[in-house]
What does this fold into?
Amino acid sequence: MKKLLVVLLPSLLAGCSYYNNLVERMHTDKLEYQCDEKPLTVSLNNTRQEVSFIYNDKSLRLKQGLSASGARYTDGIYVFWSKGDTADVYEKDRVVLHNCQLQNPRR
It folds into this structure.
């Protein structure tokens, strides 16, 4: 019985991990933007209410914050703010990616 448990337990844990990763991917959308400065790929995870993207070789993960309009995500330094098919990225209140247009938006 103990041998069977030793063999099955890692398989069960691996299966749970695989399932969690699968569910996570199902709730994450890849959004492609073309900004004035350069392209931007954003991963939007609705379940976690966060976005992640790479800016200046830094991997950023921003949590959803308060917004009067649109969707605003921040880590206290960087802000990703989207409204409709457009977005901007700020670093310490300075726009660093401006006029980002969503490519192939869903209708």
About this structure: Residues 2-26 form the longest helix (25 residues). The longest strand covers residues 94-102.
